[in-house]
Amino acid sequence: MSDSVPDSDSPGEAAFASLSLPPELLGNLGSLGYHTMTPIQAASLPAMLAGRDVVAQAKTGSGKTAAFGLGLLTRLTVSSFSVQALVLCPTRELADQVAGEIRRLARALPNIKVLTLCGGAPLGPQLNSLAHGAHVVVGTPGRVEEHLRKGSLNLATLDTLVLDEADRMLDMGFQAALEAIIGETPTSRQTLMFSATGLQGEGAEGVRAIAEGFLRDPVNVAVSETHDETSIREHFYRLGDESERFEALRLLLQHHRPQSSVVFCNTKRETDEVAEALDQAGFSALALHGDLEQRDRDRLLILFANKSASILVATDVAARGLDIDALDAVFNYRIARELEVHVHRVGRTGRAGSSGVACTLVSEQEAYRLERLGAFLEQQLVMEALPSRRALSGEPMAPPMATLQLDGGKKQKVRPGDILGALTGDGGIRGDQVGKIKVLERSAYVAVQREVAKAALAQLSAGKLKGRSFRARRVSR
């Protein structure tokens, strides 16, 4: 590594206008409300725009997607309808989010096509899309390697390769796939690698090996944590007895009343048990773990992201790669087995300038783990008393939205605008009562305010989209 950018502990104050970006991209950034760069953007974009390879240490929520998105879009030759940029991500959810952000950044550029290639989705539509060409491909290593083997993806014209959350991809066993994919790319490409660990510290060996083997004289960029005590309030609660654990969680949920929160458990079994107990106690909770089928996982994440469910109870493995906006609180049902994982959990709240709460339950048997965590964080961890039952009032908060599902999707040419129009047409609900709309290959999900769910369902069932009637139903789980 010949160059490095030192850690930055203060927010980046540089404006995007100070960069040599195309006018269309700059104008669009302004319309998106992006004016001042985050620390990772300020540290990495000048090197990217100069054509340098970059290894960047950056966590989810730091603005890294916009950084490498702007870098790769600046290098595109729009008139050449070939794959010029490839972004590899560890999970389908992250790939979808990255592709969506790149499309937003590129909307002022004419006819930019961004294609997503992920496992868990049918091959046929991907093959058809590849046959029509794309400028940018975002995908998971396994599926991208499969398309390379089949000859349906050609990377001969690739100009920019991005490895997003490279450490996670290595943890998940994708090293051989990464090496095979990189072997199919031109040696003249620019390579941008992002990871939570960077090149230093525990777990960085694999990242360092990839950097040394496949990057050319990269600039090493690291920024300090984007969270501090003012953005995340972290609390630790001592349990008198193991049997108090669930009741303590219930009290904390009642006390903080988060609209959107994640409860982290250490095992799949505990995830199911806690989610079921929360449901029985009147909360709206979903269990997310590795035993779920991909379609069930997709449905649960849609319900959580559109605020039709308030609580996601998850294992760390299942939550990898999730980029959940506006998370009010994180609850550690138990201290994570690995101390770095605890930091990642807590870092999921209090992002993008908002404040967040992290609560950790600790039994007497976990005292040794708490001591290790305090040493790891270099902090004196202070135990607090649980909220008094007498001080709490009211029922558990109901989620503000409900979700309706249509049995038509992209395959039937259904678009979000069609669904919005059907809901708000004659005698329909107001546009501001409609939330997120997600259109999949053969189905679509739309969130509406809970109090108008019945009317919205009747409106969809009675109306037509694209001149056709589609069956609609309310989704509970």
From TrEMBL:
InterPro entries: DbpA/CsdA_RNA-bd_dom (IPR005580), DEAD/DEAH_box_helicase_dom (IPR011545), DEAD/DEAH_RhlB (IPR044742), DEAD_box_RNA_helicase (IPR050079), Helicase_ATP-bd (IPR014001), Helicase_C-like (IPR001650), Nucleotide-bd_a/b_plait_sf (IPR012677), P-loop_NTPase (IPR027417). It is an enzyme of class 3 (hydrolase). GO terms for molecular function: ATP binding; hydrolase activity; nucleic acid binding; RNA helicase activity. Keywords: ATP-binding, Helicase, Hydrolase, Nucleotide-binding. Residues 45-216 form the Helicase ATP-binding domain. A motif (Q motif) lies at residues 14-42. Residues 231-393 form the Helicase C-terminal domain. Its EC number is 3.6.4.13. The keyword Amino-acid biosynthesis does not apply. Residues 14-42 form the DEAD-box RNA helicase Q domain. GO terms for cellular component: cytosol. Belongs to the DEAD box helicase family. This is ATP-dependent RNA helicase DbpA. It comes from Halomonas chromatireducens.
